[in-house]
Amino acid sequence: MSDERAIRVRMPHHLRTISGVEGEVIVRVEAGAGGAVTQRSILDALEAAHPALVGTIRDQASGRRRPFIRFFACRRDLSHDAPDAPVPEEVARGDEPFLVVGAIAGG
Amino acid sequence: MSTIRVLVGTRKGAFILTSDGARERWRVDGPHFAGWEMYHLKGSPVDPDRIYASQSTGWHGQMMQRSDDGGRTWAPVGNTFAYEGEAGTHQWYDGTPHPWEFKRVWHVEPALDDPDTVYAGVEDAALFRTTDGGKTWKELPGLRTHGTGSQWQPGAGGLGLHTILIDPTDPKRMYVAISAAGAFRTEDGGTTWTPINRGLRSEYIPDPTAEVGHCVHRIALHPARPGVLFMQKHWDVMRSDDAGNSWREVSGNLPSDFGFPIDVHAHEPETIYVVPIKSDSEHFPPEGKLRVYRSRSGGDEWEALTEGLPQQDCYVNILRDAMAVDLLDPCGVYFGTTGGQVYMSPDGGDRWRPIVRDLPAVLSVEVQTLRA
């Protein structure tokens, strides 16, 4: 049975510009076992909806988070969580956004 | 009446400067891609309204952009630059092996005969090509794997392939230059490559006359004589009369033979331009005087061009891709500085004036001469 979730994503200025969106983006993510939603499933859905983002958040060759990008949610830093670890339930429910943030350095 | 369009890449966006053929009144459009590093923009010689641009930031990596209307509107195209096969290692700054990693596109060179074909020089050094207008990019791996790649090492700005010259009389012959590896030539459209560094001498490598390892900053040619090459090296201005098989120094009476750009007059194949920089550790003009030097004899004898350029307290740099010429007569010469000025001369260098003074640091300047 399908368990599609509407995930709220907030991106930094440059990524909103190149994907042509304002404010938050809603991406549709198929939840895994037990309703889990992961960083990978969110970013895969985000890139599928906005192909210009491919390579701007995750390195294309390694698939890893780019060094000057961080992921926050629910006042926590998720940057160093495994890509397939579940994000907080509040994000999976759509109560809280998943934040893609440019580090202070990097520009 | 002709129109001149100057494509300026800066540290924080792209700007497009346009004028009629008088080159007196300029319109400034931009910033395009505000906040992004724009290493290079260049238009197709076949379809000048088709412009390709390299866009990057430390946050988000590499994007590629394409315009089909002369830079008014843009759309992102493919940004996947994957090395063919096992990428292997080059030398790191300390001489240890370091894996090849894609970082950014330094230079885009549209083909002379097809607006959908473009070459891209990237860091870590490799040559890529698209034949579908930028949707997909494929490496020409013969350059990186021809045998000397493991000896290449990054210059201060990285291991970048920054110069791509296509021979207009034989498009299968191309020249590229890499910091710090040297110059290379292909005769078969990029499948096989030969180092062409004989005659170069670089004291900063263990063997000063080695086959590779030279920090070539820029090469230029005149389309009417594509076998004659001019080079600004880390130190030394060089010349080859045999398509790079051998080089001789033509620094002559320059106040410093360190510098980055070199370019050739549009109508005089023996008239060349450089901007001397004090040294490798002091990247600004000698004596605080911004002087373009012109040789009308293909090197050795140089004259300082100063009229309209600051002759005191000037400490900007002029980067390797930041000089270009137009095709009008008299030939216009253009360059951009790290201080954000774009200067132009409407008379081959005799007199200079700024088009703009306060852009972000200029990374690249290209000029399009559009015929009405």
Structure description:
- By secondary structure, chain A is α+β, with helices and mostly antiparallel strands.
- Chain A is 21% helix and 23% strand.
- Chain A has 3 helices and 5 strands; from the N terminus they run βαβαββαβ.
- A 5-stranded mixed sheet of chain A has the order 2-1-5-3-4.
- The N and C termini of chain A lie far apart (44 Å).
- Chains A and B meet through helix 1 of A and strand 6 of B.
List the helices and strands and how they pair.
The complex is a heterodimer of chains A (107) and B (372).
Chain A: E1 4-10, H1 13-19, E2 25-30, H2 39-49, E3 69-73, E4 76-77, H3 89-93, E5 98-102
Parallel strand pairs in A: 1-5
Antiparallel strand pairs in A: 1-2, 3-4, 3-5
Chain B: E1 3-10, E2 13-20, E3 27-32, E4 37-43, E5 51-57, E6 61-67, E7 75-77, E8 89-91, E9 97-99, E10 104-110, E11 118-123, E12 126-130, E13 138-139, E14 160-166, E15 174-179, E16 182-186, E17 194-195, E18 216-222, E19 225-233, E20 237-240, E21 248-249, E22 262-264, E23 272-274, E24 292-295, E25 303-305, E26 323-325, E27 333-336, E28 342-345, E29 353-356, E30 362-370
